[in-house]
TrEMBL record:
Domain Cyanovirin-N: start-end pairs: 2-105
Region (Disordered): 95-131
Acidic residues bias locations: 109-131
Name of this protein: CNVH-domain-containing protein
InterPro entries assigned to the protein according to its UniProt record, in alphabetical order: Cyanovirin-N, Cyanovirin-N_sf
Gene3D superfamilies: Cyanovirin-N
Domain of life: Eukaryota
Length: 131
C-alpha cells in the first residue's frame, strides 16, 4: 500500500530525508525514515526513479501533501546538462510503500512490469514457433 495511506506527520528534512510515523501490522505508529537520494536521481532536469543523488543537483526542494487524494509530492528545480534549473515534481506514493512500519521502495512500477511480462510472453511464443 502507498505509504501515505497509513502514515502521519509526513515530512522531508534536509531536502532528501523522508520521515513519517508509519503504522505497523500491530497498529502501532513507528518512526521511519528513507533517504530519497538513494532511490531518486536527476536525469537532465527530471526526477528519475531508481537513480540516486537528485539533491546534489537541485535547488528549491519542497514537499507537500496535495489535492483531495492527499498525494505526497516532492518538487524541486533540477539542473539539466546545460546547468539550467528545470521545475520538476514526483509523486512519492508511486513507488514508496509502508512495509510493517518501514519504508520500502518498489523499483518497478506496474506499467513497466506489465510491459516486461508481455515481452516475455512474445519471446516465449516466438521460441515455440521456431521449434
Amino acid at each position: 500500500m502507498p505509504f501515505h495511506e497509513s502514515a502521519e506527520d509526513i515530512r522531508v528534512e534536509d531536502g532528501h530525508m523522508l520521515h513519517a510515523l508509519l503504522t505497523n501490522v500491530d497498529g502501532e505508529q513507528v518512526e521511519a525514515e528513507l533517504d530519497l537520494n538513494d532511490i531518486i536521481g536527476n536525469n537532465n532536469g527530471s526526477f528519475e526513479w531508481g537513480g540516486s543523488g537528485f539533491a546534489d543537483s537541485a535547488e528549491d526542494i519542497s514537499f507537500e501533501i496535495e489535492g483531495d487524494a492527499s498525494v505526497p509530492v516532492l518538487r524541486a528545480s533540477l539542473f539539466n546538462v546545460d546547468g539550467e534549473p528545470i521545475p520538476a515534481d514526483i509523486n512519492l506514493a508511486e513507488r514508496i510503500h509502508n512495509n510493517d512500519g518501514s519504508f520500502s521502495f518498489d523499483s518497478h512500477d506496474a506499467e513497466e512490469e506489465q510491459e516486461e511480462e508481455q515481452e516475455e510472453e512474445q519471446e516465449k511464443e516466438q521460441d515455440e514457433e521456431e521449434e
